[in-house]
Structures are given as structure tokens and as C-alpha cells.
């Protein structure tokens, strides 16, 4: 999160709305540990990462859906082990659980 | 100042802070910001839940761990209290200060080890009693360079060392090595490595025995000769073998440490 602060503060100063996705749990192998974060603005700017590039595109869509009011904050899962999981997966075969919310606190 | 502003300023200051967020259950998104020596800020929706999560968050912070914990809506933690209750899943994100590495001996290997340790996120202190060697100019990558004998450094700062920290003694000189080993053993530092050939090691063990370092639980803590048996030759390769050993000791992996083998270190 620390490496996102400069971007986040610049966006907040500019009045941009921001959603943040954080890795909260990993099953099997995963490239980033819990706490890894990525931020997405309503205009589609991105900072940080939550995987090795496998799921970032899908995370942007989820983040924008939250900022557009199409879904609420909550857990999003990417991977193969869960029937509920999104079709997008990690090439390493693990499952990654993210919590995505608007940064409005 | 918003909760985020406070959290951001702690992160910028590299000050310890844990952020607890409800990620599932009642009050999704509710937050509690927890720091040592200050009252928590924010709320997760119930005072008892706040109290229990704040307690757990401090423990997670101490261990530099982030992860999900489960509670009842009023902070219940025992399984029988959680029956027929909605589960509150709380993500605790810990931001602990960086682990420390203290390197004794301003020798050729020191700069390479300090560089690799910085890459891994350590706060690096280099210490040597010789003023001409222990200079900032020789170790610009170190966070701190001390001109001192080991004993006072351990007396003044040894209490700050914990399980995540490392002491690497690279001097090869018994008059420096022995007090550094004694100082390190008196702390709860997680890793103590001591450099030297197998014959240097044997002589050092005799010196240590002479000053009373004989207990198995002390000797078991010493990784001497320091590093993994990967045939490292250059200072940089040796630095990698030392840092890899530190990682493997922390994760309890079985890897060939030089300490547990015999034969030439540089084959």
C-alpha cells in the first residue's frame, strides 16, 4: 500500500474517486502475499498490482463496477478451485481472494 | 484528517500500524486503525468486537503478519459462542517496521551483504571498531554505520532485536567475534551467523567455550560457518548464500547449511 500513496494522494487532491483492491487470502501458490494492493480511479488510471499481471484486467473491471454503483464492496475470487470463481485465473494455478472497496474513508 | 490520512501518514513514517477491515458479514467496509501505545480509531460496529480485534491486530503486527480472522458480531471468538451467529470476517493488514540486520565487521563481504539485505527490505546497520573502515563512504547503502565494539551496541540496542531480525558477524577476528556472539546470544534475535573457514570456526568455538558459551541451546542458535552450501565464491554470492539461509531458517525449510556439513566451503 505504501508504494501507492503518492498516486492515491495526487488523485484525492484532484477529486478523483478511487477503488482499492487488496489481496486478503491466497490458496495454493500466489505471486503476491496478503496486503498487496492496487488502486483504480474512475477515469481508469491504475497503480500497484495484486498478481503477476494475471488478474489485473479483471480487477479494473470490478473496481469500475464499484465506482459506478453496479456492485458493492466485497470479496472477489480469482482461480480454479472454486466453482464461484471468475473465469480469469492465475497461471500458477492458485486461487486469490481480493477485497475491493471504494476508498471513501 | 480522515482515517485514511492518518493511516497514510503512519505508512510514510514507517511507523507500526494495523488496519482491520470487515470484508464479509455485517458492516462490510467498517474499519479499525490500531497502533501500539495509542487508542484504536474507527469502529467495526460493536465495542466488544473492536476490543478483541484491536488485541489480535497488535499480535499480528508484532509478527508482521496480514490475514483474515473470524469473529461473532459482538467479538465472540470461541466456537460455541459462534453457533447461529453471522460470521464477521476481518482482514488485518499489518505494517510492521522493517526487520533489522546488524553486520559486524567492515570487510569486503559487508558491502555485498548490506546490498542484498536492503533488497530484501532490511534496515541495515554496519558496525566495526576500526574508524578507518567503518565509514559511510564505504557503506552508502547501509542505514547506519557505527564505530564501536560490539558489547556496548548490544547493551544499548540489543533489546530491539526480535525473531525477524538477523545478526551477521563477518570479522574473522576472535577479539571482535567472541563479544559479538555473546552479545547476540543475550538477545532474542532470530538469526545469528558467524563467518569463517572451518578452522577459524573450530578456533572460535574454543574461544567461546573459554568464556562460558557451552550450552546446547546457545550453540544451536549459531550458524557458523555462516551461509548455505551453494559453493559461493564472490562477496555477492556469499551474500546470497547468507540471506537464503536466513529465509530458510525462518521458514523451517531443510536446506544444506554450511554449519551442518563438512569439507571445503569454497570447492
Descriptive account of the structure:
The complex is a heterodimer of chains A (105) and B (267). Chain A has 105 residues and is of the alpha+beta class. Chain A has one domain. Chain A is 20% helix and 30% strand. A 5-stranded antiparallel sheet of chain A has the order 3-2-1-5-4. Chain A is globular and about 40 Å long. The model of chain A has no long low-confidence stretch (mean pLDDT 87). Chain B is α/β, with parallel strands linked by helices. Helix content of chain B is 36%, strand content 20%. In chain B, helix 4 packs across helix 9 (235-251) and helix 5 (150-157) packs parallel to helix 6 (174-185). Chain B has helices spanning 3-12, 47-62, 79-82, 108-119, 150-157, 174-185, 198-210, 216-219, 235-251; strands at residues 17-24, 31-34, 41-43, 67-71, 88-95, 100-104, 123-128, 144-147, 166-169, 191-194, 222-223. The radius of gyration of chain B is 22 Å and the shape is elongated. Chain B has 2 domains: 3-95, no CATH class; 100-260, NAD(P)-binding Rossmann-like Domain (Rossmann fold, 3-Layer(aba) Sandwich). In chain B, strand 9 (166-169), helix 6 and strand 10 form a beta-alpha-beta unit. Chain B has 9 helices and 11 strands. Chains A and B meet through helix 1 and strand 1 of A and helix 1, strand 1 and strand 5 of B.
Q: Describe the main β-sheet of chain A briefly.
A: 5 strands, antiparallel
Q: What number of structural domains do the residues of chain A give?
A: 1
How many separate domains of chain B? 2
* Secondary-structure class of chain B: alpha/beta
Give the low-pLDDT segments of chain A.
none
Keyphrases for this structure?
heterodimer; A: 105 residues; alpha+beta; 5-stranded antiparallel beta sheet; 2 helices; B: 267 residues; alpha/beta; Rossmann fold; 6-stranded parallel beta sheet; 9 helices
Amino acid at each position: 500500500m505504501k508504494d501507492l500513496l503518492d498516486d492515491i494522494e495526487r488523485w484525492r487532491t484532484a477529486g478523483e474517486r478511487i477503488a482499492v483492491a487488496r489481496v486478503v487470502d491466497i490458496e495454493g501458490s500466489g505471486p503476491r502475499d496478503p496486503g498487496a494492493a492496487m488502486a483504480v480511479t474512475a477515469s481508469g488510471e491504475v497503480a500497484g498490482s495484486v498478481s503477476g499481471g494475471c488478474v489485473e484486467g479483471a480487477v479494473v473491471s470490478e473496481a469500475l463496477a464499484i465506482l459506478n454503483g453496479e456492485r458493492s464492496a466485497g470479496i472477489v475470487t480469482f482461480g480454479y478451485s472454486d466453482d464461484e470463481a471468475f473465469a480469469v485465473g492465475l497461471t500458477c494455478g492458485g486461487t486469490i481472494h481480493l477485497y475491493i472497496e471504494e476508498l471513501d474513508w | 484528517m480522515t482515517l485514511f490520512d492518518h493511516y497514510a501518514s503512519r505508512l510514510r513514517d514507517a511507523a507500526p500500524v494495523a488496519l482491520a477491515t470487515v470484508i464479509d458479514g455485517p458492516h462490510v467496509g467498517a474499519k479499525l486503525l490500531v497502533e501500539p501505545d495509542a487508542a484504536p480509531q474507527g469502529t467495526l460496529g460493536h465495542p466488544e468486537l473492536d476490543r478483541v480485534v484491536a488485541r489480535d491486530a497488535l499480535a499480528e503486527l508484532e509478527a508482521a503478519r496480514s490475514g483474515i480472522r473470524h469473529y461473532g458480531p459482538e467479538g465472540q471468538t470461541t466456537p460455541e459462542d459462534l453457533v447461529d451467529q453471522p460470521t464477521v470476517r476481518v482482514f488485518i493488514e499489518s505494517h510492521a517496521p522493517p526487520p533489522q540486520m546488524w553486520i559486524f565487521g567492515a570487510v569486503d563481504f559487508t558491502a555485498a551483504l548490506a546490498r542484498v539485505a536492503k533488497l530484501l527490505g532490511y534496515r541495515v546497520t554496519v558496525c566495526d571498531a576500526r574508524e578507518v573502515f567503518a565509514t559511510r563512504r564505504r557503506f552508502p547503502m547501509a542505514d547506519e554505520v557505527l564505530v564501536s565494539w560490539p558489547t556496548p551496541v548490544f547493551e544499548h540496542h540489543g533489546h530491539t532485536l526480535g525473531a525477524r531480525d538477523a545478526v551477521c558477524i563477518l570479522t574473522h577476528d576472535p577479539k571482535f567475534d567472541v563479544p559479538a556472539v555473546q552479545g547476540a546470544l543475550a538477545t532474542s534475535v532470530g538469526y545469528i551467523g558467524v563467518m569463517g573457514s572451518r578452522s577459524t570456526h573450530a578456533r572460535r568455538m574454543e574461544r567461546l567455550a573459554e568464556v562460558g558459551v557451552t550450552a546446547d541451546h546457545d550453540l544451536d542458535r549459531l550458524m557458523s560457518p555462516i551461509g548455505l552450501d551453494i559453493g559461493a565464491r564472490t562477496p555477492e554470492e556469499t551474500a546470497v548464500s547468507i540471506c537464503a539461509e536466513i529465509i530458510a531458517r525462518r521458514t523451517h525449510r531443510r536446506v544444506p547449511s554450511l554449519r551442518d556439513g563438512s569439507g571445503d566451503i569454497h570447492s
